[in-house]
Amino acid sequence: MFDTEVWLRHAPELHAYDYFGVLIAVALLEWIVPRRSAGDSPGQRWMANFGATIITGALLRLLFPAAGLALALVCADRGWGLFNRLDAPGWLAFAVCVLALDFATYTQHYLLHRFPVLWRIHRMHHTDQEYDFSTGARFHPLEAFYSTAMISGAIVLLGAPPAAVLVSQLLTTAANFIEHANVRLPKRLDSLLRLVFVTPDMHRIHHSRDSRESRSNFANTFSWWDRLFGTYIAQPAAGHDGMQFGVPGFLERKHMRLSWMLVEPFLAKDDGTGRSRRPSGTPGDAARQEH
Hints:
The chain is mainly alpha-helical. It has 12 helices and 2 strands. A two-stranded antiparallel ribbon has the order 1-2. The longest helix is centred in the N-terminal third of the chain and has 29 residues, at about 5-30.
């Protein structure tokens, strides 16, 4: 079905076109049809959010040199995983693995909100006090290591075809920027799209300061996982124009700075329910009184 050598040869270009093409397109749409105002410090936020993704990308290359497509090629060469042992049609293996990898992404995201230790490394993503395409770049390196390890495990278990892994990566990257877009879609179009795909209005609810809403809508590309597992909320209680973003206890402007973003997992305990408590006697207690 796919010439994996050709896909591998052009994978870097495909990733670049996907990343920068979608990013530019979403940024333009935010300028043309914004859902909400951009806030009072977009430049500072964008620099910090993309600064985080630059650091994360560099560290991932060092620690996971054989992740994603490279790992799938190793599995195919050595016969590891389910579909490298089954005599299944190529199209079936491709389709099942694209869906399964998206479900794995849903699962690892759900777990980030389920366990306090994982929530602390994911919390940086939610402490963004506005919501736009740059929020899709705001992930702590520790979360990136966790997510990469989880998806790598799924690739090995499935024996996912390299082409399926590449398509999954391209979909995930595009969806990440699209679902975080500060874009106003017509209601009818949003309703139709979210029958299959995660839309900005659907995922925006996940970033609500309301703890019930922030523990919903975990899906990345395909929206049906939330409906299947009862984690779907259709609309925010305060409406899209009235909802607030961020995590209680992390609402100071300093949390928009890259330095504070990187140390956020170690600053305070927070269980993801909207209650934040600071451990006594920890280093940085005085610093936390800065603002």
